Amino acid sequence: MSVPKTIALKNNLPWWTLGGGFLLFQASHLISIQFKVGNGISAVYLPSAIGIVLINWWGPARVVPLMYISSFFASWIWGVQFWYQRLLFPLPETFMLLLSWYLYTYKANGRYWLPNTRSLLLFFLLGILIPATPELLSLHLLYVFTGQNTFDTFWIDFARNCLGEFTSSFGIAIVLLYYLTPVVERWKLTRFDYQVSLKRIGLTPLQWVEVLSIGLVLFVSVFFVDFKRYWFLYGVFSLFVAIRGGFGIAILVNLYIYIITYILPSLFSGFGNIHIRYDQEYIYIFLGIGVLYLFGAVTGRILNDLLGYEKRLKMRNSELEQLNRELDRFVYSVSHDLSAPLKSILGMAHIGKMDFKNTGSNEYFSRIETSVQKAEAFIRDVLDYSRNKRLEVVFKSLSINNLVKEIVDDIKFVEGFDKVQFDFTTLMVNEITTDKIRLKIILNNLLTNAIKYQKTTPGHNSMVTISSFREGSFTKICVADNGEGIPPHLQVKIFEMFYRGHERSKGSGLGLYIAKEAATQMGSTLTVLSEPGKGTQFILTIPHKMENRFQEV
Ligand code: ADP
Fold this sequence. Notes:
This protein has helices spanning 16-33, 47-58, 60-77, 83-88, 90-107, 117-145, 154-186, 205-224, 227-230, 232-245, 247-268, 280-355, 361-390, 400-410, 436-452, 511-521, 544-552; strands at 36-38, 41-42, 395-399, 420-423, 431-435, 462-471, 474-481, 525-531, 535-543.
């Protein structure tokens, strides 16, 4: 079984953390007793929040016994009289703590510095809600069975305790875990070594002014505005801050609201004499605010996550673009450098062929020549591919007629060229605004193929027709041959990379793939119509929109 990363212990804690933890628990009991509203009920109960924080930093072996012993000693503070009760009452919260750690940290491998929405929701569910519910139920049953509370007030007492515990656990524990985990880790006071980065609130000065002024207004409102009517405004503030500044500030503001609306009024009305002691309505209001806190925190966390994803995506994208550019440059320079030595081999082979005319060696030189020509053609294809990828699309006005003549001149040395008759008489459109380099790559490939895939039957009159015409808002350029044609099931495949449909194809299988890519780059489409035995026609459709776009610029 693989051990979850979260329990991989790294360093030993200093000895004083034992005593320090004990004192921290005692202090939290002393504060909580000031908010006692009944037997076993406190409006602000801190030990659970402290326990949840410490168990995540120090692990259960240290914190679970600490919690039990601290609560046992605190039973004097809480006025528990009987020994068996002193031993019994700490059990529910100790069990809650262990269950919280087991479910969230051990089982769900939850990250307690809450780095994403999943962690936050799981923390709320597995770290607080699920473990605290049986704890509070059993605690109140204990109070009823030991005769310290009556069953009549069971549910309302339970609700009060939930409020005290959930709000402090969720309000305080997450702030401490989020902001202090990296600090405590740097001081080597955690048992785990995660290198969590320090948290910054990250508000702009304007956002600070906004948040502080609304915070101030709400602070004053606590004293002058009817809280029972306008309590939801605090929740709205929490949500607003979450949307403006994200998770970090949202949980701080939640804590602030918790202090000014919940803790502060209790202090003003005197310790142990707070309003919720008498008023059930307040319990529901604070439970409502609690839900809004949760919304605020989750909204902030989701926004932070989304921003994070976007940032990472942008970074990955520019890295990939950079890599792509480097790769293209590499392909270009390798292919370019290869063609010079090939040319000299070809030259040598040619001379060799002359020198050894009418000897057996002549045959070998011819073979060398063919192979080198094949390699050269392949390099030309790769260079075309690279050009198409690298070079920006530049729209310029050009003459189709001139371009086709230029290409025909270039491909004179293709095998079978002399047997083909070219027809340019149907070039109805001559002037066109498009990307010259790409149009040349496309037509070059189409014309070369039209020559290469002619019929070999003796007496066949090979014809290649190049035509151009306008059709609606498009200019179409067609290259048609009366060659051997392409079977229907292969007509899609021929545009795939490295696809060669002929045993006698001496090419790389890249030509049509590159032609199609180049057409797409210049906003055009390349399609094929073919009938086996009769011939093939490739149609390049260029939209006028592209031309207009250029003219408007
Ligand atoms: P290559 O010519 O190097 O094999 P291409 O990508 O240019 O690669 O063409 C792919 C395949 O499409 C060719 O192998 C051939 O079978 C078929 N093809 C292309 N053009 C024609 C054409 N004009 N007539 C018949 N077949 C063609």
